[in-house]
Amino acid sequence: MKRSLLLGPLIALATFPALGQSSLADLSARVDAGDAAAFQQVVALAQTTPPGESLEDLAQIASHFVRVDPAAFLRAQTPGKPCFGVSFMGPDFLDNPAARAHERSLRRAALESVPESSLSAVKQQCLAELR
Questions:
Q1: Which residues form the signal peptide (predicted)?
Q2: Which residues does the chain have with pLDDT short of 50?
């Protein structure tokens, strides 16, 4: 079972003021379940979260959504800006080049499966970031 909770037990305790009572772990679970609104919340939080303050955690959560709902992932991206989370590889991939390559190919396949022509430009941008 794919889980964003691989980030470690400390993530379960982390909360963001903008989330109120919701924890990062709850947000992660919602994103993994395919909740596009939760993913949009992750992207919005990432835009206001400075580096070093859980931005990597948000990127890891976002990276899972590429394969969960690639069309919603693309819709949430801002054209002309980097695709948030598309190429982020967390600690499970750090010392495993084969797993990294496999994950990149799965993400590319997910993005390539999106047929919507209105998402073509952002899709090409995200695919380029995965190369």
A1: 1-20
A2: 1-15, 19-21
